[in-house]
Amino acid sequence: MGNRRWFIGMSVLLMLAGMGSAIVRQATGRQAFNLGVDFKGGTVVTARFKQRPNDDAIRAALVNKGVNDAVVQPVTDRPDTVLIKVPLEGEGQDGRVRVREALNDFGREAEAKTELEADPNASYKIVGTDAVGAIAGAQLRNKAIAVTLAALVGILIYIAARFEWTYGASAVIAVFHDVLVTLGFFSFFQIEISLNVIAALLTLVGFSVNDTIVVFDRIRENRKLHRRDSLYKITNDSINQTLSRTVITNGLVFLSVLALVLFGGDVLRAFSLALFIGVVFGTYSSIAIASPIMVWWEQRLEAANREAALTFNQPKVVKPAARPKQALKSASKRSV
Amino acid sequence: MKKKNLLTRVIIIAIVTITGLYLVIGPRNHRPGLSDFKWSGIKTNLKNNIHLGLDLQGGSHLVMRVKTEEFLRRLTEEDYAAAQNAAKDAGFEPKGGRADTGAGNYRIVLQLADASKAADAKTAVEKKVELGDTNVWNYSVSGDTLIWAMTAAAERTLADNATTQALNIIDSRINALGIAEPTLQTHGAQSSHQILLQMPGVQDPERVKDILKGESRLELVHVVSPPSPSPATTYATQAEAIASLNSGGTIPPNRRVLPSSERLEKTEDPNQQRQTRWVVVELPAIIDGSELRNATAIPAQGGRADDYEINFSLKKSGADKFGAWTGSHINEYMGVVLNDEIKSIAFIKSQIFDSGQITGRFTKQSAEDLALTLRSGALPAPIEYLEERTVGPSLGADSIKAGVRASLVGLALVVVFMLFYYRGSGVNAVVALLLNMILMLAGLIVFGATLTLPGIAGIILTIGMAVDSNVLIFERIREEWRSGKTIPSSVDLGFNRAFITIIDTHVTTIISSLFLFVFGTGPIRGFAVTLVIGLLVNLFSAVYVSRTIFIWLLSRKRVESLSI
User: In chain B, what residues touch A175 (CB-CB under 8 Å)?
Assistant: First the structure.
């Protein structure tokens, strides 16, 4: 708590850096986020080869068939497989069909019902396609944003009902911070954002709020037990009391997510990565962001109330609220 | 702690565990035998019980949209043409008019030569054409202009009906194709007119897509041409055809100009690009595809060996109409129109009642596909594909392998840590965690939910959440114990206090997951399902079961130390 200014300052800096990256990119005509076909529309074809031609050869074959802006991306887990991304085309243009035409330069595709290995004459097979049209892309994008915001509002209402609305608002601000930092990270490194990444963001919302609630619960309990202590001290104590749990749990979640990053395969990579960043910042934000904001807010409210009460009862005696400041000093030695 | 209490708890836990285990690895179709306890038996049962999503088992996922605006446009234009004809027949020759179909507004406008006859003309038109329903058409008149505007409510209802109809037709086409276990349902908001089709095991959906997309609007029309023996009149260009109508460059409402790709001569080289000619036909058609009873693909008579054509027969009502018309139009030309394109033109030799052919150079496959779509009926409106995802079984298997591996590694890491850090109580947590896994899978089976790749990620996260509950409880017990309380009361307090926190964290996560489930799509949904089930199960396994284990430990002897 004592270092809260540092922490908040650092967070603001991180958020600014991430969002700054997004804005600068947008302004200079590059993409702010590397949106996947889920949101941008287009076709991704996953093709598996017996002997994979190099990326340039595949690209050349595509250009030869009139597909100019395709991205050929190797799959790290499977050297025999490539992802071919074709941007959105006009109606009636089937990206899969066009990619197949180009790939036929390298030999025949395996029959529909047979695996690549089982067909001696085949040299490749299209093992997966994701094609999203413009309408569906926009729809998925809007839905993803709406769901995220709705989930945040739902959380805000629940915490406000269980605690106070300042707690709810602080928790949501902290979570918002996590989401922004993670998105900033995705913008900065231009990692592709797919539907799975949105799911990861929502999970991290859940985790981050969990951490915050554990601390808030403790604060609520301690406020009942130690009515005379300042909120500042109580909050500091509560953070320290729950610190072991926070470290252990997040350490364990971190381990699970690490397993996901390392062994979860390419399809889940972006998802795992979003969680990976999110868990780190989620832990940090519930300690270093949510609680300080809540305390600051409550103190503000308290001071305002007292002032209002004073002016109302004894209009002439105006005494600044000194107690919170004193408490602040006495407790500032114990910090997280 | 009372002994009796403990007994009830143990019985409840035993029942739930056994039921859960049976649901997950028990056989469905036969009594459990010895083979079901072998590793391979467990594996097959597991595979049969858990419903895998398309991304894991392989298959196609298609989202399509019914272009209902096209349906409304056609409806308005047809009604406009009919209204024009009705007005003319009743002696109110319209001076002009149009069908407005732009910008989501559908209006029929008739301009009369004589403004004073507006009311009579309206009555005459509404007697013949269904424009009198005020729920559908809003009538207004200004001077010599009659306007019927489609109401917003009717637009919605008609568009929704068109979507339902399209859904039914697609359903019958899928059944005719013999696709196994398809899922077909409307998708998204009702007003989006979208349809979701999932076909497990179908890796190459191109043929299916083409068949579903086939509008198959069949019409038999009267070709405007002098009767046989002079040949049917066709024009080289569309402009030429329109010019022949002598109506100042526009097509009158009772005529249509359609392209014809018929082979003009039998001897024509089949590889040569077929020449498109233009033909003027009457509107409305004599009969349309709704009067079809059956359609079959047969080898073409007198054609090349691999040419196919389609034989169709008409229902009773259509046959009557068709018979009456052909009887009175001997030697005149009739055209078979498919999706606004003339497939063939023939003159009527004698009265025809209930059958005909569609010729054109079809291959066996294309003729069979067309016959299939004709049998299932015409789509009320064209459809477009918005989203298509296909996963081959090998890609799905890769994902399962990766997912299972990641889950096991995650689980192992957590188990090792818990045993190392909490010693004896760690065993307690591990038992709770394993039970959680089993019950979560059982929950998926009970609710008939599908397990998807993001769902597996949800399982891994549930491991994290589940162990959090135990950590919260154990840390609290340690804390109470350290503050000098007795072991039983530390355990009691630890559970009670941590329980509040556990409820709060679970409810918030369930709230956000419910949003994901209700409003999310595809993969996000699969993720939310496992997470919610996992969290609900966790309240049982991490709180109830763990507590029972502690009660049992403490009830055995006077406890002086606790391994935590």
Answer: none
Q: What residue ranges do the domains of chain B occupy?
A: 3-58+392-556, 78-148, 217-355
Distances (CA, A) of B201 to A107, A131, B355, B429: 25, 18, 38, 40
Chain B residues within an 8 Å CB radius of A198: 524
For domain B217-355, the CATH architecture is 2-Layer Sandwich (3.30)
pLDDT interval class at A118 (50, 70, 90): confident
Per the CB < 8 Å rule, is B414 touching A255?
yes
Sheet with B292-299, strands from edge to edge, namely B292-299, B308-314, B355-362
In the sheet that holds B277-282, the strands lie side by side as B277-282, B255-260, B341-347, B333-338, B218-222, B287-288
Query: Which residues of chain A neighbour B465 with C-beta distances below 8 Å?
Result: 210
What mean pLDDT comes out for the span B442-470? 85
Question: Inter-chain contact B204–A253, Cβ cutoff 8 Å?
Answer: no
Q: Do domains B3-58+392-556 and B217-355 have the same CATH topology?
A: no
Could you tell me which chain B residue has the CA closest to the CA of A211?
Answer: B505
pTM given for the model: 0.77
pLDDT band at B194 (very low <50, low <70, confident <90, very high): very high
CATH of B3-58+392-556 given 3.20.20.370, 1.10.10.10, 1.20.1640.10, 3.30.565.10: 1.20.1640.10
pLDDT at B523: 67
Interface test mutation site (partner B, options A43, A159, A248, max chain B beta carbons within 10 A): A248
Residues in chain B within 8 Å Cβ distance of A91: 384
Secondary-structure breakdown of chain B: helix, strand, coil percentages, each rounded to the nearest 5: 55, 20, 25
Q: Which residues of B touch A76 (CB under 8 A)?
A: none
Supply the ipTM of this predicted assembly: 0.77
- Residue of A170, A204, A217 whose CA lies nearest to A279: A204
List the structure tokens of A113.
């019902």
Q: Phi first, then psi: give them for residue B184, nearest 5 degrees.
A: -130, 125
Residue extents of the structural domains in chain A: 4-25+136-331, 42-132
Closest CB to A128: pick one of B392, B467, B520. B392
Fold of A4-25+136-331: Multidrug efflux transporter AcrB transmembrane fold (1.20.1640)
Interatomic CA distance for residues B205 and B210, integer angstroms: 9
| Range among A252-256, A323-327, B182-186, B509-513 with highest mean pLDDT value | B182-186
Between CA B170 and CA B174, with CA B172 as vertex, the angle to 5 degrees is 70
- Architecture of the CATH domain A42-132: 2-Layer Sandwich (3.30)
B29 CB contacts (<8 Å, ≥6 apart)? Answer: none
Average pLDDT over chain B reads: 84
Least CB-CB distance to A131: which of B203, B388, B509?
B388
* Arithmetic mean of pLDDT, A277-304: 81
Question: Chain B within 8 Å of A241 (Cβ-Cβ)?
Answer: yes
CA torsion through residues A278, A139, B529, B49, sign: negative
Are A150 and B519 contacting, i.e. CB atoms less than 8 angstroms apart?
yes
Which of A105-109, A195-199, B474-478 shows the highest mean pLDDT? B474-478
Residue window 81-110, chain A: list those with CB within 8 Å of chain B: 91, 94, 96-97
The answer to whether the Cβ–Cβ distance between A255 and B500 falls below 8 Å is: no
Tell me: cis bond preceding B299? Omega within 30 of 0 counts. Answer: no
